[in-house]
Specification:
The protein has about 170 residues and is α+β, with helices and mostly antiparallel strands. It contains one helix and nine strands. Strands 1, 2, 4, 7 and 9 form a five-stranded antiparallel beta sheet that branches. It has a four-stranded antiparallel beta sheet with strand order 3-8-5-6, with no helix packed on it.
Length: about 170
């Protein structure tokens, strides 16, 4: 191997070692962050009934998908929503549903889930939805978390909905 090849080899070893060190540093930082979280409370709500999203083109609250909880101190919270969705495709356009969290009366624009089909040819389309959000610091007091849905068609519906909130001590 010539002089240029040796230098490239040394640079490769240095870059590899640096990448390995950086990877360990990131893993260790993430690991210590997760180790500091202690679960305080868990609240959960489940509804197996179907909810037809009607009227369309309107932000609607999903029935029975609301949790009101009290936090004695400032805490971090993790919110998880899951459900099953049935979309009736529109052969000449878009038929879909969007899901949003509503925290203390404010609809969060992110995160959100958009599902649906464009010019679908099937009779119905089935989807599973999971929407999760972590709030690193929420004030003490009473809070309300609900699920908001927006549908492009009146025949779409959701079912088997579950909402879970975990609070973590800071």
């Amino acid at each position: 191997m010539g002089k240029g090849g040796s230098i490239l080899g040394i640079i490769g070893i240095i870059l590899g070692a640096g990448g390995l060190g950086f990877g360990f540093m990131m893993w260790n930082t993430q690991n210590s962050m997760q180790a500091n979280l202690v679960v305080q409370d868990i609240w959960s709500q489940y509804d197996g009934d179907s909810f037809t999203v009607n009227p369309s083109h309107t932000y609607l609250q999903i029935p029975n998908m609301s949790i009101v909880f009290d936090s004695a101190t400032t805490a971090s919270i993790n919110i998880l929503f899951t459900c099953s969705v049935v979309i009736v495709p529109n052969p000449s356009g878009y038929s879909g549903i969007s899901f949003y969290f509503n925290v203390d009366g404010i609809r969060l624009l992110q995160p959100k889930v958009d599902i649906g089909s464009y010019e679908g040819s099937s009779t119905v389309d089935f989807y599973s939805v999971a929407l999760q959000h972590f709030i690193p610091s929420i004030s003490s007091g009473t809070h309300n978390v609900t699920l908001i849905v927006y549908s492009e068609a009146t025949s779409n519906y959701v079912r088997y909905c579950s909402l879970t909130i975990q609070s973590f001590a800071d």
